[in-house]
Amino acid sequence: MSETASAPTSIRRLDTKDAMRLARLVMAYDDLQAVLRCCERLMIMLDDGGNGPDDVGVEALWTLALLSYARAFADGEGGAALTTKDLVGSDDDGNVLLWHRTLLHLRDQHADQSRNPRESYTVGIAQGPSGAVNAVAVTSVRAPLVDKAAVRQAGAIAFPLCAVLDERIDPLQKEILADMRDIAREQLDRLDLVEVAAVP
Q1: In terms of residue numbers, what domain contains 141?
Q2: Residue-by-residue DSSP string for 61-94
Q3: pLDDT tens sequence across 144-197
Q4: Helix axes 17-46, 148-180, angle to 10 degrees
Q5: Neighbour-count burial of 33, counting CB atoms closer than 10 A to its CB (0-12 exposed, 13-18 middle, 19+ buried)
Q6: What integer pLDDT is reported at residue 92 of this predicted model?
Q7: What pLDDT digit, counting tens, does each position of 2-28 carry?
Q8: Cβ neighbours of residue 195 under 8 Å, at least 6 residues apart?
Q9: Is residue 4 in some structural domain?
Q10: What would the 3-class secondary structure string for 122-177 be?
């Protein structure tokens, strides 16, 4: 990403097609950075030296990683930042595409509002020795926690995609800057001012 020459005194909102595209690309880049940070923490948690991983922490990080990964491919304002074409180009294209689809499928499971991704439940009728009904039983089967191989693969896919996004962000920033350099001050003043908190 390109750096500014000096600290700005004000920032004006751009609502152009290119500005929306740039915002979408930067958002996807940040989402993939979140995926990588989640994967780093998950590898540490899953290798917890006998204490057993924190199930809630693992699920929280894995869910965040899945949601963040999928958002980078979602169509939205500014268009999809990434497509499956961005996954192609390695010697292992088939495996990468398979893992990509797997990650999106897992995201669907973790984001499903009607199902619990951790357990599946069954209701049955319990019978006594005589065969008569004597209780209602609710059983559940716990889904396994994510394993290190899946976490490693998610990180391995996300990492090169950050470079793909970076290669799109920098030239687009430069293009927008070049287009806006000669805009009249009166036109700039009509653009909405963006409130920016001061950094200590």
Answers
A1: 17-190
A2: HHHHHHHHHHHTT---TT--S--GGGG-SSTTHH
A3: 889 999 999 999 999 999 999 999 999 999 999 898 888 888 888 788 778 776
A4: 160
A5: middle
A6: 66
A7: 555 566 677 887 888 999 999 999 999
A8: none
A9: no
A10: EEEEEECCCCCEEEEEEEEEECCCCCHHHHHHHHHHHHHHHHHHHHHHHHHHHHHH
Structure tokens at 6: 């000096």
Region 90-101 average pLDDT: 81
C-alpha angle with apex 47: 43 to 50, nearest 5 degrees?
A: 160
Rounded distance between C-alpha atoms, residue 94 and residue 54, angstroms? 33
Report the number of distinct structural domains present in the chain: 1
Q: How many CB atoms lie within 10 A of CB 160?
A: 14
Backbone phi and psi for residue 139, each to the nearest 5 degrees, phi listed first = -115, 160
The residues near 98 (Cβ < 8 Å, ≥ 6 apart) are none
3-state secondary structure 11-51: CECCCCHHHHHHHHHHHHHHHHHHHHHHHHHHHHHHCCCCC
Q: At what angle do helices 55-71 and 93-111 cross, to 10 degrees?
A: 120
Would the CA dihedral through 145, 147, 148, 154 be positive or negative?
negative
Residues 6+ apart with CB under 8 A from 52: none
**Does the residue 146 lie in any domain?**
yes
What is the rounded CA–CA span in Å between residue 13 and residue 11? 7
